[in-house]
């Protein structure tokens, strides 16, 4: 799945194997890779080489940390929803639509086994917060298969391809429905909260950000930054409206937002303004005239208000990128 996303389409139509044996093999590969990397003399490399060495070391450490410590297969199904995402086959025109439909159908046919392995790997009780988010995401994926992909085969004349695609998406949606019900049961007896604790959080920062600093130091830096920002915002508030409380001014600014129906076009205009400012003020060079397409966030990702879906780094044909903006839902009031 990851290979397909970055533009290596020989991996199209394949979901990862989450079985215990495959995970053990992957963990062993990562440990071996880290050991081999550390036999190199990083001190003898030039600046770019040392940067590459550091990035590779952090990548391997991060992957090992996820496997050995975070263990998302046991306690965080949210991290695995993305593997079931077949939107790239539909949105990115890297091959004839018929071929992309076949690949998407092949991936969705594997959803049942994928979810079965995940269901068996997950702990019997999970944090209710993790479950709530996961249910929203996996339910959204089922809806995406049933509703959003309903018109994906429009214009395809080969009815065999269309029939296989529609059968695969409905079967996958049904498997997702069953998985969601299983998730709900796990949340009923699970712990409250979502905190992972100081040890795991420190590990996340060390392997994900290369930040080898104590949490107390990070908290102190954050507190100092907060106090500085609060002092600055008070100064700014007085320059805008002397005598008025900060909270009142912030509330007034917060009322200045797009109407629900204008959210997508206004976001598109805002991104263009930001891009032009970067050019006008020579902040960075902008090497391409390509623009990301601003569209509604897919249903399986609406736990986020906005997100970027960038074209794969090795993609040579379909270079479309998408900026997702979550629309205003009716139940928000």
How many structural domains can be distinguished in the coordinates? Answer: 3
The stretches of 5 or more residues where confidence is low (pLDDT under 50) are none
Strand content: under 5%
Shape: globular
Mean pLDDT: 93
H and E order? HHHHHHHHHHHHHEEE
- Got a strand count? 3
N-to-C terminal Cα separation, in Å?
Answer: 38 Å
Strand order of the largest sheet: 1-3-2
Q: What structural category characterises the helix and strand content?
A: mainly alpha
**How large, in whole angstroms, is the Cα Rg?**
23 Å
- Number of helical stretches of at least 4 residues: 13
Helix content: 55-70%
Give a quick account of the main beta sheet: strands, pairing sense, barrel closure: 3 strands, mixed
Protein model, in words:
Helix 2 (20-37) runs antiparallel to helix 3, helix 3 packs antiparallel against helix 10 (198-208) and helix 7 runs parallel beside helix 9. The two termini are 38 Å apart. The longest helix is centred in the middle third of the chain and has 30 residues, at 159-188. The mean pLDDT is 93. This protein has helices at residues 2-5, 20-37, 47-70, 72-75, 87-91, 97-109, 111-121, 128-148, 159-188, 198-208, 215-240, 246-254, 263-280, and strands at 293-296, 306-309, 322-325. A three-stranded mixed β-sheet has the order 1-3-2, covered by helices on one side. 58% of the residues lie in helices and 4% in strands. It folds into three domains: 2-191, no CATH class; 225-254; 260-332, no CATH class. The chain has 333 residues and is mainly alpha-helical. It is built from 13 helices and three strands.
């Amino acid at each position: 799945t990851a290979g397909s996303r970055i533009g290596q389409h020989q991996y199209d139509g394949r979901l990862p194997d989450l079985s215990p044996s495959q995970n053990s093999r992957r963990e062993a590969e990562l440990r071996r890779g880290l050991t081999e990397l550390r036999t190199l003399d990083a001190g003898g490399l030039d600046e770019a080489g040392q940067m590459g060495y550091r990035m590779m070391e952090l990548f391997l450490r991060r992957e090992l940390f996820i496997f050995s410590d975070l263990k998302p297969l046991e306690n965080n199904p949210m991290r695995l929803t993305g593997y079931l995402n077949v939107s790239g086959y539909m949105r990115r025109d890297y091959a004839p639509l018929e071929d992309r439909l076949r690949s998407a159908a092949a991936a969705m046919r594997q959803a049942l086994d994928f979810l079965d392995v995940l269901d068996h790997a997950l702990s019997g009780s999970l944090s209710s917060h993790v479950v709530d988010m996961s249910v929203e995401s996996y339910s959204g994926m089922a809806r995406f298969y049933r509703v959003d992909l309903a018109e994906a085969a429009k214009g395809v004349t080969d009815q065999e391809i269309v029939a296989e695609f529609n059968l695969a998406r409905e079967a996958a949606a049904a498997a997702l429905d069953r998985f969601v019900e299983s998730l709900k049961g796990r949340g009923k007896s699970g712990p409250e909260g979502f905190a992972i604790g100081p040890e795991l959080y420190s590990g996340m920062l060390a392997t994900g950000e290369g930040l080898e600093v104590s949490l107390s130091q990070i908290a102190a830096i954050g507190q100092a930054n907060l106090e500085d920002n609060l002092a600055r915002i008070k100064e700014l508030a007085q320059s805008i409206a002397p005598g008025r409380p900060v909270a009142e001014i912030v509330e007034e600014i917060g009322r200045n937002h797009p109407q629900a129906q204008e959210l997508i076009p206004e976001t598109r205009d805002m991104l263009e303004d930001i891009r032009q400012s970067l050019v006008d003020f020579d902040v960075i060079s902008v090497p391409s005239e390509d623009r990301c397409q601003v569209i509604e966030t897919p249903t399986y990702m609406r736990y986020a208000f906005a997100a970027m879906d960038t074209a794969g780094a090795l993609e040579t044909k379909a270079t479309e990128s998408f900026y997702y903006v979550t629309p205003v839902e009716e139940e928000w009031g």
